[in-house]
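ugh ok so i messed up the first submission bc i forgot one of the chains. this is the corrected input, ALL of the components this time, i swear. 741 residues overall. if the numbers dont match what u have on ur side tell me asap before i send this to the collaborators (the ones from the other lab, u know who)
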Amino acid sequence: MSNSLALAPAPPSEAAEAVRVEVREFLAAELAAGSFSTHVDTWLSGVDPAFSRKLGERGWLGMTWPRRYGGHERSAMERYAVTEELLAAGAPVAAHWIADRQSGPNLLRYGTEEQRQSILPRIAAGECYFVIGMSEPDSGSDLASIRTRAVRNGSGDWVVDGAKVWTSNAHASHYAITLVRTAPSDPADRHAGMSQLLVDLSLPGITVNPIRILDGGHHFNEVVFDDVVVPGDMLLGVEGAGWHQVTAELAFERSGPERFLSTYPLVAEFARRLAASPDPAGLVTLGRLSARLLALRQLSLRIAAALDRGELPDVPAALVKDVGTTFEGDVIDEIRRVVDGTPSLDSPDPLGRAMAEAQLHAPGYTLRGGTNEILRGIVARGLGLR
Amino acid sequence: MASDQDLVVETVKDILSGFPPFVLTADRRWDRELWGVLAEAGLTGVGLPEEAGGSGGALADAVAIVRTLAAGAAAVPVAEQLLVAGPAVVAAGLHLPMPAEVMTFVVADDVVAHASDDGDGPGRFVLTGAAAGIPWAQQASHLAVLASGPAGPVLALVVAGNLDLADGANLAGEPRGSFSFDGEPATGALLTPAQAAGLRGRFALTRAVQLTAALEQVLAWTVQYAGERQQFGRPLGTFQAIQMELAEMAGEVTAVTALTDAAVQSLERGSADFVLAAAAAKVRAGAAVEVVARLAHQVHGAIGFTQEHTLHHLTRRLWSWRDEAGSELAWAPVLAAGLLADGPDGLWPALTRVL
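and heres the new structure output, hopefully the right one now
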């Protein structure tokens, strides 16, 4: 019996290992120069446009995209190596993360030629940042219940009213790919009548209100749209096909190594502690965590290889995100069972600080990008149960 | 997905269809008839070189056979022979017994092998000390023993037919014997510490491969059962509570499959990090048993808790195999120490190098 959710093993990629070495050298030099310091969960919290531009200069953004849009026509396996090296180092990648991961690929799939030419090269340069406009105050897991509306006016433009929440770094970003209702909700087909709009966040009528998370950090926002006039040519893809497009976008959102490496800097600090003073219980814990991490890497590599084959592995991505984000939280629990210490954001001990950051961010791991309950529903469908 | 191993898998499945799993008891500890058919088909020598008397074929073929037999809860010692004892004996330059005969393997830290001075030249040893948990000890004609010696580890090959082995069994009823050697003569070869570690890794990977196949099959059985069993007027699998459990099982199983496959590839390409890869696979597969066996039984309800149902043939093997060839507690520190070998900042480079 083979497992229908297991993708084919990823073939070895020399190109990926070569770029991995380059990224590692770059990060070591940046750390030595003090251009950044390591933190937990930096793909949410580490906004640093200067750092993003450096990655763009080195060709490490938009890696898989066509050259004519500023991309580098490299493989998903190479991109995988670059992203996991950045995450493992706890580098500040939040500014460009969403744009590079899912908005760019979404534009490539569904955007007009003009949209692609005007935006993709700027994303690849590390200069243009995106937020995800999906969730709303009354629509979390039940995304099809969104109420933000867009209505065509007499000049063919869209007038948008409503609000989006949990829009990470909207205060530091340029565009929101916004899921809106362009036709009234139809109880017989809840997924019909939605569309995606490419919304410039500097347009009049948009208010960005900060929402602070548990460590006091400002990453989340509520973005309110009050009669915002969005040019008619900013429809992304097909009117009414928003649900289908979002599903594809979520496959990119859910499939990467950030779904198991958010707390890796804590594991690294734990390992440093153990290397200095090995104790048997600590080694058992590190061994168990490492085995889980190695398995997750193999799963994630398989997804990268599937992307290179042109597949859109949405069910395996949901599965990996479920297993991976569970791991991210378990890291905290497992380490504190064998390390006696007091976590604090201003601890002089790097392990205590990493523990504090990881703990205060922990509720988010299994919520963002689709709760693990939603993901398990997708996996159950993949098993043929629904 | 199609693979080069499809043919051998189909062959083994065809044979297995005539040999359903049965409850192993002291009266019937193994499936002698199945072993005979497999041996007749040359399947008990796959992956072992033809010039040494084996059937030839690749490691991937041997792994595919072991996986198929494990998923079918076949009571035959093929895994030990194809993936551990056979390759170990060949690598050590010892004479490979006929593949139709059962050869098993045991890690025996408490058995000491002394080179003997009986005039037969190098390669002769005498063994002293006790070994326990020897898989298929009563069924084996030959015993490959990883023993210790004054000059280093020794792989010794003992003729088992005339040994007085104590009977025993694991949680699944699979035979696991014990024996005290008292000057037992053996052929053997001195191993380097790295070779001995590699052999332990092979044994751990072998159990990981079996665990993986059994975990996949238990998931498949449980999904099938949830689709068929009706309660409250609808299939169990339509309840969200059950779907959450099955999805959690699927996550565990898929992670184990990916890691075990990678560890097998590590062995295939002769990676210097193979032992760490095997350690990781064994730790991860063993950890998955907790979740998968528990939830499989929960979904199956009371019928799965009986010998009438098929489920226990694999869940009892899962509970046994996870502790054989080194449990998570044995292998996790080996993995951790190996990953930390390059110093305090070496974890990430090591993780990305090992697999």
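quick check: The domain at 195-354 of chain B is CATH 1.20.140.10 (Butyryl-CoA Dehydrogenase, subunit A; domain 3). that seems consistent at least. Chain B touches chain A through 61 residues (CB under 8 Å).
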